[in-house]
Model the fold of this input.
Amino acid sequence: MSGVRQFLALLARNRLALAGLVVMGIVVALAVLTPVLPLADPDVTNTSNRFVPPFSEGALLGTDHLGRDLLSRLMWGTRLSLAVGFAAALVAATLGAAIGIIAGYYGGRTDNVIMRGVDMLMAFPYILLALAIVAALGPGLINALIAVAAVNIPFFARNIRGITVGLAQKEFVDAARLSGMSDARIILTEILPNVVPVIVIAMSTTIGWMILETAGLSFLGLGSQPPQADLGSMLGEARSALITNPHTSVVPGMMILVIVMAINLLGDGVRDALDPRLKSGALNRPLPATLVAQDRTPVPAHADGILTLTDLQTQFHVKDRIYRAVGGVSLNVRPGEALGIIGESGSGKSVTALSVMGLVASPPGIVTGGSVHYRDQDLIGAPYDALRRLRGAEVAYIFQDPQATLHPLYRVGDQLIEAISAHRHISRAEGRAKALDLLEAVRIPNAAARINDYPHEMSGGMRQRVGIAMALANDPEVIIADEPTTALDVTVQAQILSLLDDLRRDRGLAIIFITHDFGVVGQLCDRVAVMYGGRIVEEGPTRAILDSPMHPYTERLMACVPELGGGRRRLEAIPGLPPAVNDLPPGCAFADRCDRVQAACRQGAIPLDRKGDRAVRCLFPVTEPQEAAQ
Ligand code: SF4
Done:
C-alpha cells in the first residue's frame, strides 16, 4: 500500500503528468457517462441541417455533412476510440509480455526461435503490416484492433524478454528452482511481479500511439464502418469538407490531439515514478549550485587565510533520512600552503571539498550551516554567476578519475582551450598556445603531438596530468585535489605528487589535498586535518602529527601505513566500521572503535580542543597537547 502511495506521490510531483491525468480523467469520465448524457442520436441524419456551424442552437459543435450532431458523434466516437485503443494495448501487452517472459526465462533454443520470429515481424514497416492484416481479415473495428495489437506485440516481447533474461539469472530465481518450484510457478510468483512495472511503463508510453494507429486505420476506412462513429472515421468523413467546413475536421482532430498529449504526459510521469533509478533520484538533474538552507546564519571568517571554512555543515536529505556528511568543519588555508585532509571513506572529506564551490549535488545535498570565505567573499549562498566566475578561475578542482572528468569525444587540447575561454576572451590560436604551455608545465612528453589526443589514447597518469593542466588553466589561487593519485600506480603517483609540489612552489598555489594515505600527506602537506564522522578530530602541522598523534583515530590510521625499511611490524587494521552519518552516537563518534574509551566519551558532544597550532577532539588523547607542543 505504501508503494502505491509513494507512486502516487511521485506522480503528483510531476505537474505535466498531473495535468495529463486530470485531462484523461475528464475524457474517460465523459466517455463512460456518454450513454446517460442527454445527447442527440449520433447516427440520425438530417440533410436539411448539413454543416451547421458550431455554437448554433441545438448543435453545440455543429453538424457534419449528413446533418448529424457533431457533439454526440464526438462523445460516442471518443468512447469507441478509447475502448479500442486500450483493448489493443492490453492485448499487445499481455501477449507480448507472455512471449518475452517465455523467451527470456527458458533462453537457449526457445529464446532463439521466438526472438527470430519477433525480429522478422519487426523487420516489416508496422503500418504496412497493420494494413496487410486488415486487408486479410477484412475492414471492421475488431479487425483493426487485432491488427494494431499484432503489430505492437513484438515491441512488448523484446522489452520484456530483455528484463527477464537478467531476472532469470538472479539468486532468488535459483533459490526458487532449488526449492522445487515448477517453472510456471516461478514465472508467476518470481518473474512476473518484477516485470509488471516495465509492462505498465511500456503500456503507458505506447497507448497513445495505439489510439493514433486505430484512428489511422479508421481514417482509411478500414476500422469502424458507417454509420458507427470513431475519431478516425469522423476525420475521414470530414476530409472532403476540410476547406469549406473545417469544424467537421477540427472537432475530432482536437480530441485526438488532447487524448494523445494527455496520455503521453501521463505515460512519461508513470515511467518516471516507476523507474527505480528515477525514484531514487539518481537520474535527477542536480541544481547548478548546492542548495543552502534558508535558516542558515552566515558566520564571519574566523581567520585571515585565503580560504576559510567556518562551522560548515552539509547534509543529504533522502526521503525521511538525514545524512550529516559534514557536521561543523572549520579550516583555514593560507596562501601557498598545502593542507591535507585525511580520513577513511565516508568521513566527509570529499563532501567538505565539494561544498566549498557549491558542487555537492542538490537534491539531495544541502548546506545547512556555516560559511566558506574565499578572501572576503562568503561562497555559501553566493549567486550562481559569482560562483561560476570563481570556479576554475580562483578555486579549481582535480578529481580522482580523469577518465570520468575528461570528455571522451573531444581532444584534450580542445578541452583545455574551452576551460581557458570559459573565463577570458582569447583567440583560438592563443588558446592553443596556452594549452600547449599547460601540457608542457605538467610534463607531458611531446606535448605538441599529444595535444591532439583523445583521452582514451593516453595512459591514466597522462590523463591525470591533463586534469592538473585543466585545473591550472586559469591560474587559480587554490587547488582542491580530491584523491588525485588513488587510481594511479605508485610510480606515477610519486611523479604526480612531485609535480603538484613543484607547481605549488613555483606558482604560490594553496592546495587542499584530500587523501586517505598518510604517506601522501607526509610527502606534500604542511598541515593536516584528520576527519572522522563528518568532523575534524585532529589538526596540526604534518610533522608534529606524524611524530606524536594525539587522537586515538589518528594513531590507528598511522599504524595502518606500511613503512619501507621500518623493520618487521604488524599492520593494525582499525576494528569495526565508521558510524553511519544518519545515526551518529551522542558522544564521541569513534567511541565504538576506540581502545581508550571511557563512560564520559559517550555522554555528550566532544569539543575540538585547540592549543597553539594543534587541535584535538578527544577527552583522553594519546599525547597531551602541551607535551606535543614542546
Ligand atoms: S573521546 Fe574517548 S572514545 Fe573518543 S577518541 Fe577520545 S578516548 Fe576515544
About this structure: The chain has a mean pLDDT of 87.
